[in-house]
Structure formats: structure tokens, C-alpha cells
Amino acid sequence: MMKAINYEDIIKLLRTSIIDNSNITASKVLNALSVRGTDLSQIINNTKVYSYSAKDVFLLFELLKNDSGNNFVTKKDDNSMIVVSSYKFHLMIYGNGSDDFSQIIKSIFHQSSVLNNLRDNGIHILNISSGESINEFVNNTLLLRNDLMINLETIYESKNKHDAEYFDIDYNAENIMLNVKNI
Q: How many helices (H) and strands (E) does the chain have?
């Protein structure tokens, strides 16, 4: 039986997959929900703060709920539930080498070892976008940006209705649409 996977676990697994399978340092793989905007900066030697330049490659990511994807709970004959949630993992890769690094990211999420590890943890990669290139001003510097979108689903089986505590579920229905609670 697959354990329930939460939002933070998904982020950790996807971020670790990128860091462990590329030459980028963890300090350059940033959650866009926590650091985004014109004051984006990097920390050098744990004390000095510098702006990123065009020669730096760094990426921001967002994990977004995909309301148009598969989001449902279904009850099996043994009263266990299969819970499916759909997400979009949006990657914004900056710097002159961002196009090359976006190809590295795509190859990482096609490696069988990465896919197997994610699958063993209840994450299934559905598809990866071909990418999009734009320019963006960050700290008054024009940077090349390449975006990728990875569509994924989390799937787990629950023998206990409390595993799905973040959802409003009608347990008497055969197939149930999932409604995420506002926490």
C-alpha cells in the first residue's frame, strides 16, 4: 500500500531529483513561492548577498494544483480508497545556459532510475512541455528564461479514511470527486 504523499514531500522529491542528477547546487534551485521578484539574490559564502548575473544558471519552481487534471477518490470493494491528485511543476530556468539546462532537466525526468524513484513514492510524471523561452528583468538585469511544465499525478491507496484528512469526501459514494479543503 502506498502511503499518502503531501505537498512538501512532492517538492522535496522533485527538487532532489534535479539536484542529485545535475551539476546545479541546491542554493540555485529555489521555491518561487518563497523568493520571487526584483530582489532575487544569491548568498555567497553564507554571508554575502549578490545579484544573479546572466552567466549564472539558477531555477525557480512552483508546484501548482492542476484543477483540470485527474483529481478524484474511488472506493474499492475492500473499502480502501485510491486517491489521485493532479499537479503542475512549473520550472523557470534563468541565465545564458538556461536553454541547455532545460534540456538536462527534461532528460532527468526521462531517466528510468528517477521515474522509478518517483513512482515508488506515488508520483507519476505524465508529460513534460517542450519549453518556452522569454527574457525577463531581474534586479535590473535582462536574463534569458526558459520555462518547462511537468504535469504529474500522485496516486496512493488508503485503508484508512483519515489518511485523506485534507479532503472533503462522501464515503458512501462509489466514485467521488475530490474537493480540497481550504486549510
A: 3, 12
Q: Tell me the H-state helices in 77-129.
A: 98-108, 112-120
CA distances from 26 to 8, 31, 65, 134 (A): 16, 11, 24, 24
Residues near 120 by beta carbon (within 8 Å), at least 6 away in sequence? none
Rounded CA-CA distance 171/158 in Å is 12
Residue type, 45: N
pLDDT tens digits for range 50-79: 677 788 899 999 999 888 877 888 877 777
Residues 6+ apart with CB under 8 A from 178: 71, 72, 73, 83, 84, 85, 167, 169
Q: Which of 57, 63, 24, 62 is nearest to 138 (CA)?
A: 57
Residues 36 and 143: their CA atoms lie apart, in Å, by 14
Task: Characterize the bridge pairing of strands 48-51 and 72-75.
Answer: unpaired
What is the DSSP secondary structure assignment for residue 27, as one 8-state letter? Answer: G
The separation between CA 111 and the C-alpha centre of its own chain, rounded to angstroms, equals 17
Q: Enter the C-alpha cell of residue 55.
A: 552567466
Please give the Cα distance from 81 to 41 (Å, whole number).
44
Kindly report the pTM of this predicted structure.
Answer: 0.77
